[in-house]
Amino acid sequence: MSRINLEPITQTDGAYPPVETWHPECCGDMDLIIKANGDWLHEGEVIQREKMVTLFSRILWREQDEYFLVTPAEKVRIQVEDAPFQIVRYEQSLDEQGRQIWRFFTKTNDVLTLGVDSDIELFERADALLPYASVRHGMWASFHRNVFYQLVEQATLVESKEGMLVQLVSAGKAYTLGTFHEM
């Protein structure tokens, strides 16, 4: 099993390290998997320390369909079942221009502002189109089921040629959470 040295990237201010500037060679696989429900497992056990999971999430990097934990000196491959992040909470407010905005909070303490630093796209999963929010470096966050249903209740229905769109408007941009066709 490969271990990764976290010494050079320890941060106390909550900032994201510049992983996009680090290009070490891959030095193997780590027995770490991010489950579809957002749990991070190391050697089959859920990592209980929230700060450790948050730290790992800050050094997460995606290349094509593979995920890595990366430092300036090391890069180890990990497994991700679906999306590496999961949105577990949201809030709705107004921005400086008085426009409605939605903020999403991930299980790993990321804050995403829809229409500003995050967008929503629909991806096909298990014969359904599901919404995912962009995070950073080409990575995505799924929506916890409860959050998704709460957002759908607050969304607007918009008629289109594809059917009825379930949409949120944030920072002046419309985002589709899903579609349905009349039966």
From TrEMBL:
Which part of the chain is the DUF1285 domain? 17-83, 84-177
> By what name is this protein known?
DUF1285 domain-containing protein
Say which domain of life the source belongs to. Answer: Bacteria
Q: Which organism is it from?
A: Marinomonas aquimarina
| InterPro entries registered for this protein in UniProt | DUF1285, DUF1285_beta_roll_sf, DUF1285_C, DUF1285_N
